[in-house]
Amino acid sequence: MPFMPSPASPATSATASGAASAATSEAHPGRCARPSLRLPLLALCLLLLPLVMSCSSPPKAGVYIDLASQPIFYMDDWVRRGNPQVSVRPATPPNRRLTALFVPFRVTQQMEKPSVVGLEVSRQIWQTWLSEKVFPVIEFAENAPPYRRDLAMQMAAQRGAQLLIGGYVTHYVNGGTSGDTTLSVSLEIWDVNTGQMIWAMGHAGVMEHQFANDFILFSAKARKPSDPMWAVTQTVSWDMAQEIKLWIDPPAPKGLSKEPAF
Questions:
Q1: What is the pLDDT of residues 48-104, one digit of tens each?
Q2: What's the rounded Cα separation, in Å, for the pair 245 and 133?
Q3: Is the Cα dihedral 245, 123, 189, 114 positive or negative?
Q4: φ and ψ of 84, to 5 deg
Q5: Can you tell me the distance from the alpha carbon of 165 to that of 156, in angstroms, rounded to the nearest whole number?
Q6: Helices in the chain by DSSP H: which ranges?
């Protein structure tokens, strides 16, 4: 708790303040100008804030300003990714509402407890697709073994599903809040009745660990979410869901523009 001086009379306070100011000015001629220099510095930092925010791209940004120290700009980290890589897609949209069975992904990377990782990643993708209403019915076979097409097709047929959704986790690195977090998945969708593959899609995302950047006038730091892998998986799942939704409900074709008659 900062030290608080005892109350004093106005006259005494004014006299003491004037004496102290005079003594400080004589002993340290440049010190009295320091508070006046902080205001232009603060204004300059505020002018630089839009530039920092524009450099940070998608994430939100904030600033912590203390006149006694260097201003700090905080930028929320974001998931870096490209577009989903689609190698197989249907030529025409479906003519009926489809039901699907979602089975746990198989992890192809060497790691401890790969089935647990595949189950968790698959569950998050399934939950995202549920919230996005990709299909009217998407059942998640939580107790099924990691994805194997022949076994999964039999399970989907027994449960009356029209589509089978499975895939692979090809790269998984959970760096937490102190390292890089990377996820790569490969997804397949099969027609249970015909046994044909109708979708094959791959996607990846990464959330890099950002270090603080100290500049002359301010410092820039990145803030990560508490669970970066969850954020990466959510983003990758959402991107893939949009591809499927465009197939199920394609946008209406734009009409041809006509020149006015007059």
A1: 444 444 343 444 544 444 445 555 554 556 688 999 999 999 999 998 899 999 999
A2: 9
A3: positive
A4: -60, 140
A5: 9
A6: 10-27, 34-55, 114-132, 149-158, 228-248
